[in-house]
């Protein structure tokens, strides 16, 4: 699978842009703030229906425009597909594949997979468990639609149950029958989701370790600890007993939304005891494992987006990463870099075919 061309209208800093890509290495060079990352985000939209960097779609509309349009032409399994994403201010987002609009955007997830390695990936280590849950949920959802549907349903019920808890707290009266209409389906969804998360980690971990070995020369053993109360034998009883606390706090305190993922290196928490180099190696290994995992489950080679990684890695890790992604296991790759000469020295003559584009003044120009 590869992206043949991209067309933008009023998307972020671009009033209008059209660009055609090659099927292997595509390098976007230009000063910081020129819009290189916005090109990657447009590709991310076409793959996932949403931005990789903003939670609100309206933030992707150019300040001079009242809407944005992102169109892409993909070749997948010898067939050409036209993907369209657009949004008008104060309107619903439109998403189409080959002129057909989805009933639900979730139906698109996993059809045109992408993996992004970006500077803010360190949030997976530094930030809350919610960040790690979202990361792993996004991987599972790309190959297991029933998981995604269960997750969407659970989050909907969770929002409703929390609203009910707040209402009962304010009224000073508990409606046990009404609460039970949420409790039973949520408990069932919790067990279904937790079992799939546990099975995923068991399958994912060997991919993570093998990639970490390649990045770090087999120096340490890494692991992911999945912690959940859902799979305990008395979870349903715990859930019932927690109602009083739920009423006081006005939120649901047990469930898969409280699950935790911990990254360890040689049995120590990498967040507390890992060096900067070890943390960077783990982050790269996570994304490469994601790439392998999605590819093996979907039978499609994802697009790989590398955003400003040369400034964040030392020369040894850059060399190791380039040698890995230069293999036949990888397909189309997009790289951004603020220094054109560095990109040329690292990639020219080593990866073919390759295109270099200069991004400046809100335009994209292909270089020779």
TrEMBL record:
Its main location: cytoplasm. InterPro entries: DNA-binding_RecF (IPR001238), DNA-binding_RecF_CS (IPR018078), P-loop_NTPase (IPR027417), RecF/RecN/SMC_N (IPR003395), RecF_2 (IPR042174). Residues 2-344 form the RecF/RecN/SMC N-terminal domain. The RecF protein is involved in DNA metabolism; it is required for DNA replication and normal SOS inducibility. RecF binds preferentially to single-stranded, linear DNA. It also seems to bind ATP. Belongs to the RecF family. This is DNA replication and repair protein RecF. PANTHER family: DNA REPLICATION AND REPAIR PROTEIN RECF (PTHR32182). It is found in: Cytoplasm. It comes from Reichenbachiella carrageenanivorans. The keyword Transmembrane helix does not apply. ATP binds at residues 30-37. Keywords: ATP-binding, Cytoplasm, DNA damage, DNA repair, DNA replication, DNA-binding, Nucleotide-binding, SOS response.
């Amino acid at each position: 699978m590869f992206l043949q061309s991209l067309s933008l209208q009023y998307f972020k800093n671009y009033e209008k842009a059209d660009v055609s890509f090659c099927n292997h290495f595509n390098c976007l060079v230009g000063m910081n703030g020129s819009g290189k990352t916005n090109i990657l985000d447009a590709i991310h939209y076409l793959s996932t229906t949403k931005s990789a960097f903003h939670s609100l779609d309206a933030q992707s509309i150019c300040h001079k425009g009242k809407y944005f349009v992102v169109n892409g032409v993909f070749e997948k399994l010898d067939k050409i597909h036209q993907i369209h994403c657009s949004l008008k201010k104060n309107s619903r987002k439109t998403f189409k594949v080959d002129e057909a609009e989805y009933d639900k955007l979730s139906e698109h997830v996993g059809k045109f997979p992408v993996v992004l390695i970006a500077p803010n990936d360190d949030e997976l280590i530094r930030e809350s468990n919610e960040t790690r849950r979202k990361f792993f949920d996004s991987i599972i959802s790309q190959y297991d639609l029933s998981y995604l549907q269960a997750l969407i349903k659970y989050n909907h019920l969770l929002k409703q149950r929390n609203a009910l808890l707040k209402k009962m707290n304010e009224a000073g009266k508990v409606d046990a029958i009404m609460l039970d209409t949420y409790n039973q389906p949520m408990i069932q969804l919790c067990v279904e989701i937790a079992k799939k998360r546990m099975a995923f980690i068991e399958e994912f971990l060997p991919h993570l370790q093998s990639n970490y070995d390649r990045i770090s020369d087999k120096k340490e053993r890494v692991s992911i600890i999945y912690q959940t109360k859902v799979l305990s034998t008395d979870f349903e009883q715990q859930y019932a007993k927690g109602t009083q606390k739920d009423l006081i706090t006005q939120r649901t305190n047990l469930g898969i939304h409280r699950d935790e993922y911990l990254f360890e290196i040689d049995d120590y928490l990498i967040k507390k005891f890992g060096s900067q180099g070890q943390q960077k190696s783990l982050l790269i290994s996570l994304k490469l494992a994601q790439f392998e995992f999605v590819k093996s489950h979907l039978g499609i080679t994802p697009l790989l987006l590398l955003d400003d990684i040369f400034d964040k890695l030392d020369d040894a890790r850059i060399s190791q990463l380039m040698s890995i992604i230069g293999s036949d296991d990888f397909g189309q790759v997009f790289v951004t870099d603020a220094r054109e000469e560095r990109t040329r020295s690292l990639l020219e003559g080593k990866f073919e075919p390759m295109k270099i584009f200069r991004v400046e003044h809100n335009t994209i120009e292909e270089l020779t």
